[in-house]
## 1
Amino acid sequence: MSEAEAQTRAISDMISIHGTSAKAVAITFDDGPNPEFTPQMLDIFREEEGRATFYMTGEQIARYPDTARLVQETGHEIGNHTYTHPHLTELDEEAVRAELVRTGDLIRETVGVQAATFRPPYLATDAQVERIARELGYAVIGGVNGAARDWEMPGADHILEASLAVAEPGSFLLFHDGYGDRSQTVEAVRALVRTLKKEGYVFVTASELLAMES
Ligand SMILES: [Zn+2]
């Protein structure tokens, strides 16, 4: 972690775990919707029962609105992941606001709901980004399993083990259903969900997890 990243983390209100004794986790996917991989993630949660959260970019929703609607219709949560996937910490206030507003508007036009949670691309956030997100009504969501690095395709076993190692009640777990070949993520998340289910966990959306009593 660079010094700048460390400072960002230190001042960040990004939520990676919500204090609760309930055996519940929020499994989340970034960078979709993706017509090939998003439906495979939905299959996992239909087969094993539970709900997930999909942090979509405006660009991907504009390309694949039917996939976005499928996510909504099958009971999952759609969150805001900006329109163009920039490093928000490098943008001025107006540009940050535009990224969030434009995407929120498109989500509402496409699936008819107001997104309530937001994940910054690259988890790059600072006080300005978080203030704007809060003003627009978003909770800023991180993830506990950054070491899984599923976007780098480190192998399904690595993604699974690095996620299991840090999963605990109230965790937000971060994966990707877009941006490249996500077949390792599909395999790892299927195994993760089966394993955690056997341990008594349930799979809830980000907003549901945030609403759980501690
Ligand atoms: Zn992303």
## 2
Amino acid sequence: MARARRLLRENLKLVDVVIELLDARIPVSSRNPQIAAILGHMPRLVVLNKADLADGAVTLRWLEWFSIRGTPAIAVDSTTGKGLGEVPLLVEELSNGKIQALVSRGRRPRSPRCMVVGIPNVGKSLFINALVGRRVTRTGNRPGVTRGQQWIRLARGVELLDTPGVLWPKFDDRQIALKLAVTGAIKEEVFDVEDVAAWLVGWLKEHCPRPLMERYRLEEVPAHGRQVLELIARRRGLLGAGGVPDTGRAAIHLLKEFRAGKLGRVTLDEPCG
Ligand SMILES: Nc1nc2c(ncn2[C@@H]2O[C@H](COP(=O)(O)OP(=O)(O)OP(=O)(O)O)[C@@H](O)[C@H]2O)c(=O)[nH]1
Ligand SMILES: [Mg+2]
């Protein structure tokens, strides 16, 4: 991790704008808590990725939340490329100040440069691939810091470093850790998988029980998450010796279905304040 941080610091010196990738389902929990200190005054574009899995109405509220705080933000789906078209123009606009300052000091104008940062599994690689699409032209003569790193030219002459910066999520708050586990940002083995699934069941029961009830044909959602896992195990035929419901396998099954959007479009972090 120390090496990754050092590399990130080196790469940040090469760019004008940072694209901060967040998970649209957990815009707070997927944020690196030290991001402001890491980036300093560097212009930043917030991208709420996986917007296809998040509640669209809540995503709009999140975009407004960032906008009020003076941070440009967009929502995208990197699996289809939806929303990505705006990125080069926004990077160009956000780079303008720095490039103009260089020009006013007698330097030649140059292409705006950006890089992507985000926590593990937030979709950095897919986002870069979707952004680059088939228009990839590598500007080979000016490599990044690491061997093998390249700049990729996007629309409007914007250059993107092909290697994203990996940030670390915050684990010490249990709620945040559970949200990271539910969405797949941290390995569920860090936790007891049944605890994670039971927490998700509790959250869904409170906020949007319908898809859960319909998908697993539940007449009601029992009070305890583990009872729900037992019912899911029965519905899906996940039984152990003697026909005992296998709640461990039910937990894994539920998390997989949730992550694939089978339980509806759900946002676990609400904007407030
Ligand atoms: N539904 C959906 N899935 C996405 C989206 N973006 C990424 N994914 C999925 O999320 C998972 C992680 O994507 P990656 O691009 O590998 O994430 P990453 O940030 O590069 O992950 P690391 O390299 O491990 O840090 C993959 O299964 C992707 O298919 C999105 O916008 N929508
Ligand atoms: Mg990756």
## 3
Amino acid sequence: MASWSGTTRRRALTGAVAAVGAGALAAPRAEAAGRVAFPAGRPILIRRATVVTVDRGVLPDTDVLVEGERIKAIGRGLTAPATVIEAGGGLLIPGFVDTHRHMWQTSLRGVGADWTLGDYMQWMITKWGPLFRPEDIYAANHLGMVEAVNDGVTTVTDWSHGLRTPEHAEAAVDALFSVPGRARFAYGNTFATDLGWVTDGRVDRVLRERFTGRPDQLVTMQLALEANDTEDGRAALRFARDRDLAVTSHAGVFGFSGDEQIRFLYEFGALSPSVTLVHAGSLSDGSYRRIAGKGAFLSIASESELSAGQGYPPTAKARAFGIPLSLSMDTVIWWSGDMFSAMRSTLSADRGLAHLRAHEAGHTVAHNALRAADVLQYATLGGARALGLDSLIGSVTVGKRADLVLLRTDTAAMTPVHNPAGHLVFQAGRGDVDTVLVNGRVLKHRGELTGPDLPRARRLAEDSFAYLRSRIPNADWEAAMNPPR
Ligand SMILES: [Zn+2]
């Protein structure tokens, strides 16, 4: 085990002791504030919520009973010996599912606000990425997990392509398991010159040692890679197929990849429902037809595509060809981890393009084709389907795992709520996330994290950033922060 791990565990222990002390002091204040305790093993009854099921419409004034890891019952006037959460009409939704986030970049949050994709490749990938130590990967992923839970993203795909060595991969996985949110570890390595790392034993070792292969493990694993028609590309895809590992690839990225990649994947038999293609905005109709025909998913990162320039968010093409969609945030080095923002920008991009095309043709759009409820589905059940987890998560459904998000509706912006899906997309934000359950466990309540340790996450990220910044020449930092217009 690498030495950083020991350091991390010692820190974790110190943090835990500190937390116990702080908790003892804070308890009277918490009780005064009416904080609810959630004893392990005791069912939880969420009372009088506006339940946005995603798969069966909206259920007003409805109770949801959570027993163990699962949703036990949904109905009106439910009674059970349980810890009660009074929803007061708040919106109860399935947790968001992000299908593409480079969590190893979290400690550099916001640096690239004015970057293009070229700027990102120059600074983040070429110059700074190789500076990351395993503990930097851990710190970023840990903070990313805390952020996801806090924001109601109950499943986040760590598109982990900063894993130069097996120690980096261990650190990434350790961090995902360190917070009890749900995650998909997508093992990648953008620094390698070929895909030999897929088959050289390191991926198999992580798979064997850390993952059960069961979909209900809180963290599951897949591969993140771009395979082309080369010997190592074919070997990597065979490796994934032999192990039943899902694959996610950046695709249809202007200047980087196009129809040739899709044609190869199609002809090699590597397009399937266990493949998620990220961006996919710069492709021909023939490629969209091939993707649709094989049931592969797209991950739309609309804020990324609109700002960085991979290609226009292809939601209209996906609808035209019947390609299932999920949403993602890509990286917080530019944007936020805010899935409300993802829904909003996706809907706006789709409608904006339709209006532009109509005006260019001399007419006007009579009715919007893409609806708020559609992008809410992409952000929840769509993501669950893309990850092959829709039998477990993605909707508020009896029998599914209780990955639930309750939004408060007692603020000005959340009053009144007449159109729940529209409200979620255009009115709500991360600050409205009141309560978060993952796998039946309350991780946030009344706006405060109840499990994840934010102070520790912040400290680790600050230490990591201090190290990384010390390795970046001042001239580079200034140039990166102020890219030429
Ligand atoms: Zn990406």
## 4
Amino acid sequence: MPVSNKVHVQKDEVNAQRVMDRIEQLATFSSMEGMVTRAYLTDEHKAAHHQLGAWMEEAGLQTWQDEVGNQWGRLLSSNPTEGTVIIGSHSDTVVNAGKYDGTLGVIMAIEALSNLKLNNIELPFHVDVVAFADEEGTRFNTTLLGSCGVAGTWNPDWLDIKDASGISIGQAMKAFGLDINAIPEASRAGDKTKAYLEVHIEQGPVLESCGLPVGVVTGIAGAKRFIVDVSGMAGHAGTVPLELRNDALCAAAEMITTIEAYAKAQGIVATVGKCDIKGGAVNVIPGKVQFSIDIRSQNQELLENSCTQLLMRLQSIAQKRQVTAEAEKIYEASAVTCDSKLQSLWSSVTEDVTRKPVHLLPSGAGHDAMMMATIAPMSMLFLRCEKGISHNPLEDVLTEDVAVGLTCLEKMITAL
Ligand SMILES: [Zn+2]
């Protein structure tokens, strides 16, 4: 990164270095030697939260673990006349993850509260920091479990969902020491929550390209995912003339390029991340192909219309090529807008700290903030990450940027 892109904040540099050191330390709580992999309700989850709890106590916070396994710390107000402020992110990771996705937001929040406490700053509200135990869904393929518990949207049916070894969430919770009958007590839905704030790495290259350490998030894109099964007729690669084939892969290929072209025209994003030829062989015309579609937009109406239109286009390609295509929706999450007042507050805070115009940007990735938006005004601050890389061991951030983010977060809390 060019040196001119850096914004130095003297005061928080020592604290930022401590954040970086703690991120390195937390990365050692992993199920895989030499890699970062930390899934829900595992020994690594327990050890990492024990460490986070110790840092919270060191910062002078009151600590507890909730009924779904999230770790909390509270900066107590002596006169809490207003609702509580919650600041959080997640502590779990994908397989062979980077060190910063999620953990950065948790450790920065602990550092900010520690600083406020050291400076004897008295607030008219409690400030809670939370490490959500399961955002990625690495073990059970169900995302946002930690924040669903806090938002009061935990579905009891989830207790039966099993991991790859056949252990259910319910069994894993019991083994972890959690009481499944007490899960509703994790909910903060009825409480007076003044705001939910989350600091997270951008997971994209926009801030780096603008030369800015931080940016204010406008909203989180809604997403829909489908699995499409295309069935044609398998046959001999040498004997069936091209015009008499029902090649499922050629049909799928046309569908995939149509998805890309349509998404471009609509200004949305669509990705085919998986594509399998069932029983494929070098001398066999593909008879069955399965592929995935992930479609996202910040505009919920556009997302809904685009999905309907696209599925119709896939059907006409199937008809033309005399194959069948069946699409099954496997996931959906609605688009969420960040609270406008909190966005303005973040904007003035970041402009004050960086002395550059604020950059507003949407989040294409899902976050715990989506769930928290159901119970409190929500907002997010993105921190620049190197080349926009995430979910990858190459994930990296600058200590200078963490210093900027910390100053912004502290100013934001006191400005609320
Ligand atoms: Zn994350």
